[in-house]
Amino acid sequence: MSLFFRDFILGKDHYIGSHSEYKRAMLLGQLTVISIIIPVIYMFIDLSISGFDAPVIQYLLAIAVSLFTLWLIRQGKVIAGIITQLVMANALVFYFAFISTNISANYLFFIANAIGGFALFGYRYRYMALVFVALSVTLFFISYGGYLLQPKNGSIYVMINFCFVVLASVLAIYFLLNLNHHSERLATEKNDQLLKVNAELDRFVYSASHDLRAPLSSLLGLIEISSRAKTLEEINTYLAMMRARVQQLDEFIGEIIDYSRNARLDPVLQPIALATLVDEAMDALRFMEGAGRMKFINEVPAAMLVKTDPARLRVVLNNLLNNSVKYSDVNKAESFVRVSAVAEGNTIVISVTDNGIGISAEHLPKIFSMFYRASEKSKGSGLGLFIARETMERLKGTITLQSQLEKGCTFTLRLPQA
To answer: In whole angstroms, how far apart are CA 208 and each of 220, 323, 378, 390?
Structure first.
């Protein structure tokens, strides 16, 4: 039965993805059906009492407008249907309330129109709902004004009671809509986050299994070859190659740990001297392969304090500086990496600039993706910049890249400050 009613209101092949939009369309359809049934009942009652002198045309008009509203719903034009139905309902109630000598039985429909309008428009269109609440209240006062020309005991109390009931009802509906809106928003965000995590997990398992096995397979091959070595020089060569594979594996495991910590732990914000943190990150790379020919330049003001999670910012800086060393241009007379920082309002802007080999324009849109490598010559796992971006997001900041091939890279970090 419910499926039949749903198909009757929305149409058999009409699908609404959003749960709240679906509920709004169904509520409008149900109220529209009621708006057809009530005029039909009143029309038969009036015809039985007054015969052909009964005001049938008003009822037929209300039925026709409601049928048009049903057509709009089936066309997917729900908001247009809401506006049409509310205009008709307010106009019809106003007509009967204005001409009635006993308005106490009619003004209740203004309350129903105000509450129904707020429920139909929902939180997203709440300002439009307020317009129709104001319309219902205004029409009530206009129609009730005609009644006050014939004073009766208690008339002022009816107006006060009407205003109180409308206000209390609208506030209650708004509270429920607001609560439902934020609950649905949180559920949507959690669902989107879960989809993202699942997609990243699938890719992570696939790529990580390859990046973990590759150095181990290489090690097994080198061990097999070194067992047949005949000179000390050959053995030392193979040992150096083994050391490189182990370091590669160690770096990859470290990146996995950084990614796991960033995903699981909440940021711990505290004031830190940014220049000191940059010095520590640079010192940690002094003995890295290729660092000997690099010039490390720290231009961060010594007095600059940044409120952030130092462990997370250190991970980002380590990744960026590490890349500058890995992808330095050996054909240039001098290689450098420079870190600078400025305050822009409530934001600290950190720039990490090098004159390395750079990145071509076609790779820039994907450079922060998980396991993305800009070329086959890439020495890393493809996790470093992905972790840097994820870490900056956890710090409520951003990271962007400007680069030209053979010119170098400039990474810009923007950290909000309370």
So the answer is: 19, 20, 16, 18
